[in-house]
């Protein structure tokens, strides 16, 4: 009986492997628009798809980033500057894309641009801290998607949204996890709505990777500023310096554990854009696959216990 079961599971995996290997045709005719191409995953994906022969439309936050990317890629790749927090910038970029793709429509939209903040307890922050991050990571994704949706529908193409394992388990305070939970929710509803039109929506959930978004020096500096300049006297009494020091140590340790191999993420993005049968969700990185994703399926009390035992404790606890 166990042998039959193992054979059945093996057969299912074999079928899935075969199904996922099939690639869409006419890739060199397809346009893909990627946000946040100055650095990190967006930059690598733009170069990777360019090498594969696709027509890449790369949006960079700065002209400097765009110039550097153009210098490393073929003439097929075109760049535009885009700030996803500004409606006029998104409208201009959408018009720019429309002029390039014409009647073919846009095959791929990759919502990759994002920022992070130092992880801190929520009560150290202000509403504006949350607004700043949600504007880029969530509202930016939504507005860019709404502006380009008619072009993606025309091509019966793909939307690839970059979330995070922090969109599955909320391990620290601040706007980052909230923004990624929002990306997950937006993508789920979008996938169901767009399935009627042959458009596929994929969510990328990376673990921790060494990019500029995870910079322990900047995070520690942010944390120090928050503590020195903004923390109220009550917060300072409750948490104390020892808590801040051990929080800083955790941030530095986390950076050391980050994976350097960004291709684990960009290969998932590429698969979502080029496979006939893309997955709905991709977990990228061993930490995501072996730790954070399984953790997201645990009962809440167990997740709470894991976080509790691994987090620094305020000085005045009950
Ligand atoms: N690295 C990780 O461990 C990790 C894990 C899970 C999810 N992610 C997600 O992956 C995505 C890419 O991040 P990354 O790790 O590759 O970091 P990154 O190298 O900092 O890339 C983020 C990109 O977004 C751009 N950007 C920032 N604000 C923007 C704005 N307002 N409008 C347009 N573009 C903007 C940045 O431009 P500048 O370089 O000019 O600032 C940069 O090119 C993000 O959504 C991030 O949340 C990262």
UniProtKB/TrEMBL annotation:
Entries under PROSITE patterns matching the protein: ADH_SHORT (PS00061)
Keyword Repressor among record annotations: no
Keyword flag Oxidoreductase: yes
Keywords: Oxidoreductase
UniProt-listed Gene3D superfamilies: NAD(P)-binding Rossmann-like Domain
Pfam family, one: adh_short
Entry superkingdom: Eukaryota
InterPro entries for this protein: NAD(P)-bd_dom_sf, Sc_DH/Rdtase_CS, SDR_fam
UniProt family annotation: Belongs to the short-chain dehydrogenases/reductases (SDR) family.
Annotated protein name in UniProt: Retinol dehydrogenase 16
Species lineage: Eukaryota, Metazoa, Chordata, Craniata, Vertebrata
